[in-house]
Write a structure and sequence with these properties.
Layout (H helix, E strand, L loop, with lengths): L12 H22 L18 E5 L6 E9 L6 E6 L5 E5 L4 E3 L15 H11 L3 E6 L3 E6 L8 E5 L3 E4 L15 E2 L6 E2 L2 H6 L1 H14 L12 H16 L10 H4 L9 H4 L1 H17 L2 H4 L4 H14 L1 E4 L6 E6 L7 E2 L5 E4 L9 E5 L10 E2 L8 H12 L6 H4 L12 H4 L3 E2 L6 E2 L6 E2 L2 E2 L7 E3 L6 E3 H20 L4 H12 L12 H10 L17 H15 L8 H10 L3 H20 L12 H22 L5 H13 L1
Parallel strand pairs: 14-17
Antiparallel strand pairs: 1-2, 1-5, 2-3, 3-4, 6-7, 8-16, 9-13, 10-11, 12-13, 15-16, 18-19, 20-21, 22-23
Helix pairs in contact: 4-5, 5-10, 8-10, 14-15, 15-16, 16-17, 17-19, 18-20, 19-20, 19-21, 20-21
Length: 645
């Protein structure tokens, strides 16, 4: 074969086919590697139909609330006009991630919302199985009834994790006023040897911290008062002396599950976050070595926040005056409502420190247990402002959902009556339009807005009537704060009721109710009722007002039978107390008679029967709220009933 000639090679077909297949696979692998990445198609934003309920994010606090789609905003794709479900004005929401379907559960529950076994077991133990803990995205942890409960039943009785007196001279252990002994080092008060011994180990730990606190009080921010700082130091001392968790009492680890809202504070208020940080560092640096072990300033900050949002007010059974703060479970898990169904009783001076919660209305299985975080006597606008400022939520309970007066038909609600004014020309009732409150902010009143008198047809500017009410509020505050004693306070309040500004308030106005409450407080249980005789008209007017609020009616005065029937449906401590005061004064009036005629004469027999009916109703209401065995009001009513027989 010549040099350079190409030699032909014949390959059998059986060997060629595998070779071609391997080349094809290699090509496909290469093609897959160099193929450009596919860009995913952007999903179209979901369209919402008009009138549908959705969950919308509120810009002020980032929380989700129920709303209804009103319309699409023309010229702005994906933007809707919505109406909030709590009756506040319409809002405009850009779709994207700010609107979602109603059936989705809002994921708002903080990390603390998980229901651990110890907390559930404790609630079950305190309630005897009547209550249980549940959790949801929107409400976090909350308490519901495990079965039907009748009004007056004890829902829970327990010893709280910690209690804090309000008065400086009150016993730090049992809250009794005018304590007889005090710590020479820090000034902490005790009512006697029993309480001093019960608190000995705790106070030995907290006393050095209390003493150190005195030197830095001027460096605390306005967010945390000296009282709040002492509360935090007491909890940190409890953490040291309590030992390991036990089944028969609450533990530091249980209270760490209470919400702190730490994740929301930076969003809502940078100044609050800064104040909490500086105060927590200040308090941490005060701690003795045993109290500082195992924690950081961050733990102290979390504790300050938990105390801010979870301490409930303790009200004395008989006087209805706040005597201290309560930090414990299940109270910390009970949500707010302006129409509560539970009332807590506490007897200052009881070294066992037992707190009892009673149902003040019939509660069905699965119903949520609710208590008031603020004074429900105040009107809706004030309540919602305080609730957002102090607890970071807009109240949407049944009472707050009522929008007040409808401009077209002057619809009356229990809340609109609390702000009722009178016409300057004919003294008829004027019901003002309810102001809008969202995110703690009140929508300003339109300066041109007017209210029409249904009797004389006269028109008056709403903002002028609101100014009268604001001046009256300041006058009442000055009368109460500036008083040197109870007698002086009564004199000042009587003067307040005669002021020109007060005359523009209707008898149903909440400020008039407060003034009458002070005047008609009567004598304390067990003493003479004579000091209240000259003010006998006040309790009757107050009770009518109170029941009118509950009934949403302005028909005054109610006859006694209608009044007592309404009281049976609205069994609250205030109603019971005022029924008792009214009954006592009716008895006094019957004893004195008219023009010296004794009550045994026939003309006064009807008044005596009325007094008996009122007092018996008072006994029933007070027994529901306080229990027959604890309320001194019950004994006072019983003694007055003996005069009617």
């Amino acid at each position: 074969m010549p040099f350079g000639a190409v030699r032909k090679v014949c390959m059998p077909a059986g060997l060629l086919l595998p070779l071609l297949m391997s080349d094809l696979c290699a090509f496909l692998i290469f093609a897959a590697r160099v193929q450009p990445e596919l860009v995913p198609q952007k999903p179209e934003e979901e369209e919402y139909e008009m009138g549908h309920l959705v969950q919308a994010r509120y810009s002020a606090n980032g929380a989700w609330y129920t709303a209804r789609i009103i319309s699409r905003v023309m010229g702005s794709p994906g933007t809707y006009e919505i109406a909030w479900s709590d009756g506040d004005p319409h809002d405009t929401i850009k779709h994207k991630s700010n609107i979602r379907k109603q059936e989705e559960e809002p994921q708002l529950a903080p990390p603390e919302a998980a229901v651990n076994a110890r907390v559930q077991a404790w609630v079950n133990k305190c309630s005897g199985g009547l209550l249980r803990v549940e959790v949801s995205g929107s409400a976090g942890r909350y308490i519901v009834a495990s079965r039907r409960v009748e009004a007056g039943a004890i829902l829970t009785q327990d010893v709280p994790y910690a209690m804090f007196p309000i008065q400086a001279d009150a016993c730090t252990w049992c809250m009794r006023l005018a304590a007889s002994e005090s710590c020479k080092a820090c000034g902490t008060c005790f009512c006697g040897p029993a309480c001093l011994e019960a608190a000995s180990s705790l106070h030995a730990c907290e006393c050095p911290a209390f003493c150190a606190l005195e030197s830095v009080l001027d460096r605390l921010s306005r967010v945390n008062s000296p009282q709040q700082a002492r509360r935090a130091l007491r909890i940190l001392a409890l953490r040291v002396v309590e030992g390991t968790p036990a089944d028969d009492k609450l533990h530091w680890s249980d209270m760490e599950t209470c919400v702190s809202h730490a994740e929301r504070v930076p969003v809502l208020s940078a100044s609050l976050e800064e104040s909490m940080k500086s105060d927590s560092v200040l308090l941490f640096n005060l701690l003795p070595g045993n109290m500082a072990t195992g924690i950081t300033a961050s733990v102290v900050m979390q504790l300050l926040l938990r105390l801010k949002y979870n301490v409930a007010s303790l009200v004395e059974t008989d006087s209805f005056q706040p005597v201290g703060g309560l930090f414990g479970i299940p109270v910390a898990l009970i949500n707010h409502s302006c129409q509560p169904n539970i009332f807590f009783n506490f007897e200052p001076g009881d070294c066992t420190r037992k707190v009892v919660g009673r149902a003040i209305q019939d509660i069905e299985e699965g119903d949520e247990i609710c208590m008031p975080y603020v004074d429900v006597i105040e009107p809706r606008v004030v309540r919602r402002q305080k609730l957002f400022f102090h607890y970071l939520f807009d109240c949407a309970c049944a009472e707050c959902a009522l929008s007040g007066a409808d401009d077209a038909c002057q619809v009356l609600t229990s809340d609109s009556l609390k702000c009722a004014m009178v016409c300057a020309s004919c003294s008829a009732m004027l019901v003002l339009p309810a102001p809008s409150v969202q995110g703690g902010k009140v929508a300003p009143t339109n300066k041109m807005s007017k209210v029409l008198c249904s009797r004389c047809g006269g028109e008056q500017f709403v903002h002028e009537l609101e100014e009268y009410a604001e001046v009256a509020r300041k006058l009442l505050h000055e009368a109460v704060v500036g008083a040197s004693g109870k007698s002086d306070m009564r004199t000042r309040v009587l003067g307040f009721l005669q002021k020109r500004e007060t005359m523009r308030l209707h008898a149903l106005h909440h400020l008039v109710y407060r003034a009458n409450s002070i005047l008609a407080g009567g004598a304390p249980p067990g003493s003479s009722v004579a000091p209240a005789r000259e003010l006998a008209y006040h309790p009757r007017a107050m009770l009518h007002i109170l029941l009118s609020w509950a009934l949403g009616s302005c028909s005054l005065p109610l006859d006694t039978d209608s009044l007592l029937e309404a009281a049976q449906e609205h069994m609250t401590p205030h109603v019971g107390r005022h029924l008792l005061t009214l009954g006592m004064l009716l008895v006094v009036a019957c004893e004195e008679g008219k023009d010296g005629v004794p009550h045994s004469q026939m003309e006064n027999a009807g008044d005596l029967k009325e007094a008996e009916k009122v007092l018996r109703c008072a006994v029933r209401v007070l027994a529901v709220c306080h229990g027959k065995e604890v309320s001194s009001f019950i004994f006072e009513a019983a003694s007055q009933l003996s005069l009617c027989e």
